[in-house]
Amino acid sequence: MKPDRITLRQIRMPLVHFFETSFGRTYTRDIILVEVQSGGASGWGEVTAGENPFYNEEWTGSAWTILHDYAAPRVLGKELASANDVYSLTAHIRGHNMARGALETAVWDLEACLAGAPLWRQIGGGARREIPCGVSIGIQDSVEQLFEKIETELAAGYQRIKIKIKPGWDIDVVRRVRERFPSIKLMADANSAYTLADAAHLKQLDDFYLMMIEQPLSHDDIIDHAELQAQLSTPICLDECIRTPRHAEQAIKLRACGIINIKLGRVAGFRQAKRVHDIAQAAGIPVWCGGMLEAGIGRAHNIALATLPNFVLPGDVSASKRYWKRDIVCPPVETTVRGTIEIREQAGFGYELDRDFIQSITAREESIG
Ligand code: OSB
Ligand code: MG
Fold first, then answer.
1. Domains of the chain, CATH where assigned
2. Would you say 63 and 96 are in contact if contact means Cβ atoms under 8 Å apart?
3. Of 87, 187, 272, 325, which has the fewest beta carbons less than 10 angstroms from its beta carbon?
């Protein structure tokens, strides 16, 4: 495999409903798609960075520059024995995992297409035929609206509900949700909105038998999470903090978390995601697949990832229609009545690209090579 052309396309897609986290509201996604070609074949990846550098340091604009000026030139024209080699080729670039990860996952897709194999098999997955699904529900304008959303998702069969929290939308909201839905699998994600000074406040969440509390403290502070975990009976799940396999080792060693959310982009692609997965598995730490409001390509890559054996908890990978009126893949990603997504046997990421639609929403396009 020798990438001879890499094409970046930035597409613009309005969300069906705004999505609010502790760091802000998103109404429209600006997503970069990466197409890697070798001979006549193509592989596709999706940048999972947000529109602003608020979840982590990356955003659509930085990802375009990193891909165009640094990552793509390092991979273009290289004879690759395996998609596993891509990570090292861009490792000279510090950080910017989501930009690098989009290129890496595109090469995995390319490799799978050339092998005529589904992506989940190419990455060494396939531990399950369907992946368990949960939903992430953003901060709403009222608790009544949140109740309504939860009802809808439970009726659709989703196996667990994650709600977003922030100071001012936390203990009372969780209490009311728990009173209304006493037996659902429930968790809360704070996206780094608190500090260790809030430990006593967060400790109140122990009353609501949550599956976990996701990333309560700073995006880059494993040590404070270890201190907080020692005070909480609810397991902490780390998201933002785990950007490398080494971070997973350190967090586990310090007992900073009981669960890890793995996001492909955040850890720079499949190779690193598999390493984090393996480290957690060896330590008896369950993992699940997080989401970043992905369009169909990123969603399909997440499905492949979630077939690795230690993805035992329902993740944030859900149906396309929760986010998009029309997705960029055909058919759209759909869930079963069991609240699962069935894996597909087609080569590569398993769905057809809706190229006309992609073309019609492309705001910027450039080929290298
Ligand atoms: O922290 O998991 C997060 C969306 C954007 C940024 C960060 C997060 C999220 C989600 C959405 O929770 C998950 C999804 O894609 O459904
Ligand atoms: Mg999170």
1. 5-116+354-368 (3.30.390.10), 122-342 (3.20.20.120)
2. yes
3. 325
Ligand 2 centroid distance, CA of 189 (Å) = 6
pTM for the full model? 0.97
pLDDT, one tens digit per residue, over 25-61 is 999 999 999 999 999 999 999 999 999 999 999 999 9
For the stretch 147-178, pLDDT in tens is 999 999 999 999 999 999 999 999 999 999 99
**In contact, 184 and 210? CB cutoff 8 Å:** no
What's the CA gap between 108 and 123, in Å, rounded? 8
Distance 355 CA to ligand 2 centre (A): 31
Q: Is the shortest distance between the CB of 191 and ligand 1 below 6 Å?
A: yes
Res 1: pLDDT? 96
Q: For this structure, is 166 an active site residue?
A: no
Residue 149 is a catalytic residue: no
Model pLDDT for residues 102-120, shown as the tens digit of each residue: 999 999 999 999 999 999 9
DSSP state of 67: I
Task: Give the max Cα distance, the chain.
Answer: 59
For residue 136, report the distance from its CA to the centre of ligand 2, in Å: 9
Structure tokens at 187: 């968790």
3-state SS of 297-358? HHHHHHHHHCCCCCCCCCECCCCHHHCCCCCCEECCCCCCCCCEEECCCCCECCCEECHHHH
Q: 241: how many CB neighbours lie within 10 A of its CB?
A: 25
Closest CA to 43 of 102, 87, 97, 84: 102
